[in-house]
Amino acid sequence: MHTEDTEGILQECDAGVKTALDSIDAVIDRTNNEELRTALKKSRTEHVQLANEITTLLDEHGLAGKDQSGMAKLMTHTKIAAELLMEPTDATVAELMIDGCNMGIKKLSEYINRFPTATGPAVKISERLIKTEQELMDAMRVFL
Q1: Which pLDDT value is given to residue 75?
Q2: Phi and psi at residue 116, to the nearest 5°
Q3: What's the pLDDT score for residue 1?
Q4: Report field, pTM of the whole predicted structure over 0.85
Q5: Is residue 139 a contact partner of residue 94, using CB atoms and an 8 Å limit?
Q6: How far apart are CA 24 and CA 8, in angstroms?
Q7: Residue numbers in the chain where pLDDT is lower than 70
Q8: What total of structural domains would you count in the chain?
Q9: pLDDT (0 to 100) of residue 71
Q10: Dist. CA 26–CA 128, nearest whole Å
Q11: What is the CATH number of the domain that holds 122?
C-alpha cells in the first residue's frame, strides 16, 4: 500500500470539499432564482456527503483533515463579495460557481496525477468529487 500518496490525495480532497462548501454557503443566500437556490442546495448536500466519507477515510488512516489556507479563504471571500457588489445577479453567482468548480476539477486532477499510487478508495472519492463539481458546473450554465 502506498500510504503517502493515499494520505496526500485524501487531504487534498478534504481541503477541496471544504472550499466548495464554503463557496456555496457564501453565495446561496444571495440568489433570487429559486431553481438556482435549489441546485446549490442539492450540490451542497452532495458535498456534505462526500465530506463525511472523506472524514471517515481520513480517520481510517489516522489523519487529520486539511483546510484551505487562510489566505486562500480570504481571497475567495473577497472575490465573491467584490463580484456580487459590482453585479449582484444570479448570473454572477452562477459564473462564480462555474469558476470555482473549474478550479476544483483542475486541482483534483493535478492531485490524482501527483499521487499515482494512491489506493482505490482515495482515488474513487476524488473522482466522485470531480464528478460532483462537473455536475454543479453543468447545472450553473443555464443561469448565465
Answers
A1: 87
A2: -70, -20
A3: 43
A4: yes
A5: no
A6: 25
A7: 1-2
A8: 1
A9: 84
A10: 23
A11: 1.20.1260.10
